[in-house]
Amino acid sequence: MSKNNVTKLDLNLLVILDTIFSERSLTMAGKKLFMTQSAVSHALSKLRQHFDDRLFIRRGNIMEPTPLCKTVQKNISPSLKTIIQSLADRGEFEPASSKRTFCLGLSDYLCKLLLPNILQKIDDTAPGISLRIIQTTYEQRAEMLQNGKLDVFLGCTRDYGAGVLKEKLFEDREVCVVRDGHSIQGRVMDEKEMADNEFAALSLSETGLGFLEDYLYRKGVQRRIKVVLQQETVIPAIVENSDLVGSVAQRLAEMYAREGRLRIVRMPLENTVFEVFQHWHTLNDNDPAQKWLRRIISEAAATLPSLDA
Asked: pTM of the full predicted structure?
């Protein structure tokens, strides 16, 4: 790395580095920063000279970061976000006047369940605030909290490490849905029906192993999974037009069952209840803006009806 005095580095260049890192493209970074591609290329040249490293290597249309670039970006990104947000809020967070954008990690199921209420509460008290919604895998979440790419994510809890805090929001239950006229007629499947039918299942893990897959694997019938998706709200549409059995959250299943399109069937297990939490990084635990956001999310979740037995 260059021995140049850090005070000689234009800190705006770090914003450009962070944006190239996020977009993986000089053209897209330029559009996001309202700069020409030529200006972004010139800034990257200065950064390469300062750090004595290529920082990004072109692979086709993608700008891949070097190991040094990954280390630098990981260290500067949270600070840059804090500085930019502080400037936007003039050093204080006032919901009614803030123009801040929060980034939430929400699955499509949680978007359908909670997002309308969250947006209504934001519009009522902080109309200038906007949200960016990202769907993540389990493996991405902790790192995205730490590097400032996510403010909060919602989902089932795992061991995300000591730096991730959590608050329980509500409970749901894993159930199955079938189309009207399906061969499964009872309210609860037996194990033979589980073994004889093919399933559409959800997995938010990069390994592809979800709740239903894990259960069937332990029963020795894991090959009955016909399709695995990260989009839970797509499963009812697939089930409605096929003989597949869909594995979804009960609160989502009830929305479609009320419309008369699908029928809910329980699995032959005593308890398939799961808990949904909101998670955030300890670095942001006392941040007034994030405390406000977490309160809004908690209030939205509190309006959900109790889970039917």
From this structure: 0.72
